Please model this.
Amino acid sequence: MSAAKNKLFEITNNDSGLHGQYKTWFLDYASYVILERAVPAVEDGLKPVQRRILHAMKEMDDGRYNKVANIIGQAMQYHPHGDASIGDALVNMGQKDLLIDTQGNWGDVRTGDDAAAARYIEARLSKFALDVAFNAKTTQWQLSYDGRKNEPVTLPMKFPLLLAQGADGIAVGLSTKILPHNFCELIDASIKCLRGRKFELFPDFQTGGMIDVADYNQGKRGGKVKVRAHIEEVDKKTLAIRTVPYGVTTTQLMESIVKANDQGKIKIKKVTDTTAANVEILIDLAPGISPDITIDALYKFTDCEISISPNACVIVDMKPQFISVQDLLRISADNTKNLLEQELRIKLAELQEKWHYTSLEKIFFEEKIYKELEKKHDSWEKVIEAIDKAFVPFKKQLKRDITREDILKLTEKPVRRIYRLDIDELNAQIKGLEGEIKQVKHDLANLIDYAVAYYENLLKKYGKGRERKTEIKQFEIIEAKNVVIANTKLYINREEGFIGTGLKKDEFLFECSDLDDIIAITKRGIMKVVKVQDKVFIGKDILHAAVFQKNDERTTYNMIYTDGKSGISFAKRFNVTGVTRDKEYDLTKGDDKSKVNYLTVNANGEAEVVKITLSPSAAARIKEFDFYFEELGIKGRSSMGNQVTKYSIRSVKFKEAGRATLSGRQLWFDDKFGRLNADGKGVLLGSFEAEDRILIMYSDGYYEITDQELTQRLDAEKILLIEKFNPEKVISAVYLDKKNLQFNVKRFKIETTTLKNRFLFIKEGDGNYLEAVSTANEPILAVQTGRGDQVRKAKFKIARLTEVMGWKAVGTKLADFSKSLQMEWVKPKEEEDNQPGLFE
Model:
């Protein structure tokens, strides 16, 4: 036994055998993948393959395009992992349109199309790359993998490239995902960082779209961003997707839409990809399907909205570290400042060396020291000594000692006749060098200002056309239940007490979504809320079943039941706002023999009148009477209710419809998301009855009448006025007639009744837009023109300026167009004015 233990100990502690090699190989492999393949370095933001490609391209650079196949071959001298990895990395960098100028078919990140073969496409370093990424004098070098050539350890990158390009990589035990950021914003942030001011950074994608950065968490682990495509409503039957989310291709997007349609989440007729220079995916809707709900459903159930979790991991001092994008930018700004300082110090040394030699040359010729070369000395060494001795009186004019190399360099210059003009030229060179030295020393003394100027120059040279493409906005939370279409049929067996989608031989109830909850109430008075299922038991003798709306405070249940223990009948009115799914709730006093005599469900709290007939054997003198539900207050579902009668009830029958006992529903408009809501978010529009409508006036001169549907999407950025619609109100509108360069005013009433259609009520023409609109009875418009001392102000009483006309009328001229003209409606308290006239 001891021999076996000794053998095991020998095996586990032997580093030369197979077991010993396995002990270290995995760690070696993991370290290699992390450091040499998957994770970028913090100094230049590049992975090794990217750095080697750029170095190879710099060696080949002559200003002309090179075949990508040749670049791959050149890079293989430095990268030991084959042509495929080099080619993929090169195409990836080329598609980002920052460091590499491309020519030919390089594919399309929006559609997922691959680049053409390497032999057909060409590339060269961009001017930007040559400016920010290369300087042999400040580069640290190392031997390539085979020891034949030198390659850079890191490139002297004077720009936050890692944040501009982004990075993805999966290593052993960790991964990195750094999202790309905007070129111009990175430069602005770098300047703020150098100045010690606060800055913010948010992702920006080539593919455009919209992004919600509320949970970005500075790009660190645990954060996430939501990215959406732009979806437009072309008409009531067609939607158009104009951008794709980052990392999603048009093909993937279409597949996700088709999948959602097949699963019944959305209902469409056809989806067509017409992408060319710009992304365009057209979606034809099925008849009767709401475009607004479909847009929400596309965001909820397809790749039109995706969530991305950033994870900024970089190599710092040969170790992977997780840091924020703010810290990455600070490191980049400090690194850029240090590189600029190195370049300045190298330049200063070169200028001082040049000044030293030019001064030597001037003295050499001006003081005729060169004539020592014409004298007969015993040896060349004596000549050198004689020249050195001749310089002794002038050494105080120099800034360093004269070396043998300096003298040898002077003797190599051709000796010819020296003119005064040559001396003057040397003096001019020295003066110019002294000016340059002074400037470099000034830049070194004011290094931050110099670095800021460097960044500003980059922005000026390369910032045009690199403005932000991705719109930053907060996304509203879309509840799946609110947008999913009715994609399944629900059936009911009332007698046996079952509900489900699989009971196709029983009574059809209604169409619903497989995400819905169903509320059901039985004759016994048991209420239960369940998920839509194939078959689920509720309880025998089901009286009512419907889709359950959580937190619904308007739907009111009117019920009369008889308590099984006492025989007394009670009436109650109640709401059901929140329940535990699959739990049974007893709506009676709890006795098993209790039963429901009457039940109605009222969407707006209506309180009807019912006729109650007592049993013939009842001792009551009056055996038939009316009961008014409006006399009851609305309470919780567990309330006992009010006593109706102590006698046995034979029947309860509906007699007369009642009025709604609830006040109108209050609606708000949330201008952040362009949504109507009943939750108090945004601007209060008022109290609405079921038949009330909403008027919307847009800045492009259209108006629209719409209903109270909360799922509709409104273009908040274009809305100038939104309020409860009153067809008797007169609308006062001022708009620009661009062709005639004048503002027109008109007053009119809305004469159309069609819902959710836009009508143009200003003069049609390019550049025309609505400037101001009001529904006040006596609107007063304050107008200001001119600037400085030339400011002129006036107030117009619009009702006295023009009569009420048709909504299609052109209107009356109000004022000539001027860029300095400003308009605003005077607040009601300022309207109190007894002076007659058109204006004040």
The chain has a mean pLDDT of 87.
